[in-house]
Sequence to fold (303 residues):
Amino acid sequence: MVREGWDAIAEWRDHRMGEAGDLWHRAIIDPGLLGQIGAVRGLRILDLGCGNGYLTRRWARAGARSVVGVDRSARSLAIARRRELARPSGARFLQRDAADLRGLPDHSIDLVACNMALMDIPDLKGTVREVARVLADGGRFVFSICHPCFDLDERSAWEIERQLYTETVWRKVRGYTEERMSRVPWKISDTKLAYTRTYHRTLETYVRALGDAGLAIRAMREPRPGPEAVRRSPQGRFMLEVPLHLVVEAAPWPSGPAHRPRIPSGRGSRKSVRTSATVGRRRGWGGRRRGTGSARRAASPGS
Ligand SMILES: C[S@@+](CC[C@H](N)C(=O)[O-])C[C@H]1O[C@@H](n2cnc3c(N)ncnc32)[C@H](O)[C@@H]1O
Fold:
């Protein structure tokens, strides 16, 4: 029996994620995302693509001023609300498409967090535009995704070369420049297979979508697996060499999209480029928070 979509795997996924996240979230992805986010006390937070809402509720319990979890999957939200009812944290949950955050006022959010969902959302541009709309002055957009360079659906894989005394780990990647949707299989029981959709995009596409919406990248992390992941996941030690996840922090450009940097078309125009690092230094940004990072899809078959 084959089922399709996030609703189809919501119960199965909730069982794996619980209140702490599964192994990959706990020991690879979340430390990178949470380390980048830092303290949340007093912040108005939007958790975009919140799933079962375990992070949404964690932020509410950590003293955020308000936290709303948004997801398109009705089943995931029903689970999130059920968990909230059982152990109230103050988090709210809203069913919305990420590219249509109707009901969330302009400039009303200090932190939009999006953990491992942006690559699964079909309308990247529309989503990032909505994120930029709801972000308050000084607000931040922090997201984690499958690393676009190293984790591309079935077009990337590990290759282990074993010789008598040595083992070399290769990460093979093909078709990086071809952006496309693919279906991710999840074996949710011995007899049931479900599929979700994911969208491979190049790094350039992500950066462009952020820039077009008036957001500049302030920081990036490539999370490394923690000791638990190295010990318990067959891929854990491989990810010490090649990261499968990426954490990005972006924030509104000081004077809006009109002043975003232009990528020069040829040589010789370098002077006209203002990099985000330059702007960051000017505004006192950059290098504030340090920590580990790493990531790939949670609970992927064979993870
Ligand atoms: C891999 S899950 C991550 C969930 C959660 N952030 C976590 O870390 O456990 C991706 C989530 O994105 C949600 N999603 C996919 N497309 C969406 C869209 N267009 N709008 C809102 N949520 C979406 C899915 O329903 C799913 O809950």
Notes: Confidence is low (pLDDT under 50) at residues 265-303. The longest helix spans residues 23-37. The chain is about 25% helix and 25% strand. The first strand starts at residue 2 and ends at 4.
